[in-house]
Amino acid sequence: MLRDRGRPAGIPGNKRGGIRVYVKDKMPRHVFDETVLPHLDAAFNYARWLTRNPVDAEDVVQDACVRAMRFFSTLRGEDARGWLLTIVRNTWYSRVSRRAAAEARPLDRLPSDPPDDALDPEERLLQEHTVALVRAALDELPADFREVIVLREIEGLSYKEIAAVAGVPIGTVMSRLARGRERLVAVLKLTTSVEAR
User: Fold this and answer.
1) Which sequence spans correspond to the domains of the chain?
2) Which long-range contacts (CB under 8 A, 24 or more apart) does 14-18 make?
3) Do the beta carbons of residue 30 and residue 39 sit within 8 Å?
4) DSSP state of 185
5) How does pLDDT run across 114-147, given as a tens digit for each residue?
6) pTM of the predicted model as reported, rounded to 2 decimal places
7) Could you tell me if 23 and 11 are in contact, meaning their C-beta atoms sit under 8 angstroms apart?
8) Secondary structure class of 194 (helix, strand, coil)
């Protein structure tokens, strides 16, 4: 959960999924809640892959929500999800540039997915091992490749939506996806060949 760093006077809080969001009194709270809060899980998931650290991801999402609240009037159309993910991305890059670091800290061990009751223990162990291999392989990719793969394969965004979030042309998205997938496959092959020895 995020640390409550103090609530400014006159700003009511709303909590969803461990992220505390503050909404100014001037804006109808329900409008912001209905528009932005349904996308907090996607924002956190995206931030976690960008930062490679769940605690930093929570901070990025909290800062992004503050920015979203401040610039809520800039939201055009119905694509609140892409708009929020763009703010998350920009917030993360702002933090990285302030730290003058090319990459965020290493990924802490992510909590395991809940066990699938349909799998027997051996199958479950193999599945967890495969998930760990893919996470480790994703972690080795450069941030540009990792983010487009996460947005496409995990968040299910279209090429057009990814282009809007990343601020690059669709052709660049397609190129990064293709090269990122190639690198991911190469890393997985190398990892599995080393394990086979």
Assistant:
1) 13-99, 121-196
2) 16/40, 17/41, 17/44, 18/44, 18/58
3) no
4) H
5) 544 566 677 777 778 788 888 888 888 898 999 9
6) 0.54
7) yes
8) helix
User: If you ran DSSP here, which 8-state letter would residue 154 be given?
Assistant: I
Closest CA to 48 of 12, 99, 113, 92: 92
Most distant pair of Cα atoms in the chain: their distance: 64
Q: Six-digit token pair at 72? A: 């809520």
* Residues 139 and 105: beta-carbon distance below 8 Å: no
Tell me the residue type at 139: D
Q: Which CATH number does the domain 121-196 belong to among 2.40.50.140, 3.20.20.70, 3.40.50.2300, 1.10.10.10?
A: 1.10.10.10
Fold agreement (13-99, 121-196): no
How does pLDDT run across 51-80, given as a tens digit for each residue?
888 888 899 999 988 888 888 877 877 778
Q: For residues 46 and 3, what is the distance between their CA atoms, to the nearest angstrom?
A: 20
CATH class of domain segment(s) 13-99: mainly alpha
